[in-house]
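>> received
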Amino acid sequence: MEAGKYKYEVLQKYIEDSIAAGTLASGDRVPSENELARMFETSHITARRALSELVNKGKIYRIKGKGSFVSERKKQGDDLVFRCLMALDAQHDFSLLQMIQGAKQYFDAKGVGFQLDLVQADTRHHLDYLFALAESKSAGVMLWPIEPDQYIDAFYRLQEKGIPFVLLDRRTYSLQTNYSGSDNTAGAYMQVQHLAGLGHKRMAFIGQDPSLNTEKERASGFQLAVSDLLPGEQCYLFYASANVESEILPLIRSGEVTALVCVNDRTAVDCLGKLAQSGISVPEDVSIIGFDDWEPARYTQPALTTIRQDFPEIGCQAAKLLWNSARHKGRGVKTVLQSVSLVVRESTAQPR
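>> returned
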């Protein structure tokens, strides 16, 4: 062992020297914990610490189930730091965390800085912070906008300052921007397709905020699917202002509605609770399907059938868009939509 060095530092230096010499290039797999332990006749704990130190230094990154790999080497003077602006929103904490993790993994692989900025879930606070970021030296900004159409002036300011940005999950049609999200229209179509396959013909769409483009896309997918799959059948659209007890329950009890298509899982869980209080059984009296695959929705009674979004991949693709925009400015903007998938659980069944 080299004098004055701990064993893990020797292993660490071996890998760093291999990277510097080009023996290990960007993207190459690094010797595993087991391989390092054998090569240096040391313990797995020592090898694990050496790899952890290299991850912390940004020299390597890990992919679960595949191993450790060499990060992309920075060019001299290339000290990029990307910012991620998120709202402290308990309603979306699970999905936001997954998107952040996907973005961080991508930037770690590139060996560049990634700073998370958490701001109060209030549009005014969000905008103030975004205008401040426009005056910073950020390489780029990704953000989850609370009300996207209220951000147009801030987006123009970022463009004026030459700071690329990408929207996560929520977008605006008032301005062309980089955007990474799910195919909401296809997901809502899939909801109706599943219910129609079970024999349902009379459905109601339950939304929350019709001003959000995400919800507009899902409502559009719902209506398109009803038109394609159930021509001539009447469908209903309700939003947060609707009273479940006075407006929706009578339709269920009369048989005019046999299935509820919810804009997201939180809405579906809320409906489950109100229906249970009113003596309506799910799925015996009415089927319910959600959207998102929100973690708590897996443990409702009955467990919620839903549409799953790939949140980590949404974050990863957002990071990729931002990286490419920062490296190749002036190439225009791009939209990347992730496919969604149906998760069948216990809240949907054939109508009686």
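>> The domain at 184-309 is CATH 3.40.50.2300 (Rossmann fold).
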